Amino acid sequence: MANQEDNAQTLARTVLYQLGVELKARFTSFGGWEMPVQFSGISREHEAVRNTAGMFDISHMGKFTLQGKNLISKLQSLVPSDLSRLQPHQAQYTVLLNPQGGIIDDIIVYYQGEDTSGTQRVLIIVNAATTGKDKAWLLQHLDQNEVQFQDLSPEKALIAVQGPKAIQYLQPFVEQDLQPIKAFGHLQATVLGKPAFIARTGYTGEDGFEVMLDSDVAVELWQSLYDAGVIPCGLGARDTLRLEAAMALYGQDIDDTTTPLEAGLGWLVHLDTKGDFIGRPVLEQQKATRVQRRLVGLQTQGRNIARHGYQILSAGKVVGEVTSGTLSPTLGYPIALGYVPTKVATVGQQLEVDIRGKAYPAVVVKRPFYRSKNRVAN
Question: 246: left (phi > 0), else alpha (psi -120 to 50), else beta?
Answer without folding.
Answer: left
